[in-house]
Design brief:
The chain is α+β, with helices and mostly antiparallel strands. It has one domain (4-140): Trna Endonuclease, Chain: A, domain 1 (3-Layer(aba) Sandwich). It is 40% helix and 13% strand. The chain contains six helices and four strands. It has helices at residues 10-13, 17-21, 29-43, 64-76, 109-120, 131-140, and strands at 49-52, 86-89, 95-100, 124-128. The radius of gyration is 16 Å and the shape is elongated.
């Protein structure tokens, strides 16, 4: 277990090229997201709610016009560009918002803006590329799990 002085601020993770390029098994984000959701549901305190949000910006449709219409309909219905992939509501009243990435992918400008706004509202946020990163994120934010109890 790392000491608190060994922990890295999750805001710095997305800006650290060493951290991004260390990944040996590059996986699509959906694979990372699925593994992280399963992990969180297994280890967070009983009563926690872990939900994945569908925020893909790639529109459905064969033509550019169909994709634009799909994107416009999603925006009109409330989709927020840059929103997190996973939302965790904890019994303690804490909220943890997680963005999943794969390979060398990094946060977009929209994701940085949403992360900074959520952090300003005192929500806990982070970017993860793996279950191990998720474990570190929980430790960084002082969120106890069934693994650490």
């Amino acid at each position: 277990m790392s000491s608190s002085s060994d922990l890295i601020d999750p805001h710095e993770w997305a800006d650290d090229p060493q951290r991004r390029t260390k990944r040996k098994n590059v996986q699509p984000e959906i694979v990372v997201q699925t593994a992280v959701v399963q992990y969180l549901r297994a280890v967070l305190p009983v009563g926690s709610i872990v939900a994945a949000t569908n925020t893909e910006q790639r529109g459905k449709g064969r033509t550019a016009i169909e994709r634009m219409r799909y994107g416009a309909a999603r925006k009109k219905s409330g989709t927020l560009p840059g929103w997190f992939d996973i939302v965790c509501l904890l019994p303690s009243g804490k909220t943890l918002l997680i963005e999943c990435k794969a390979g060398k992918n990094n946060l977009s400008d929209d994701q940085i803006n949403v992360r900074d706004a959520a952090t300003a509202l005192l929500h806990r946020c982070g970017v993860v590329w793996s279950v191990d990163d998720t474990r570190e994120l929980l430790q960084y934010h002082g969120i106890s799990t069934r693994e650490t109890q």
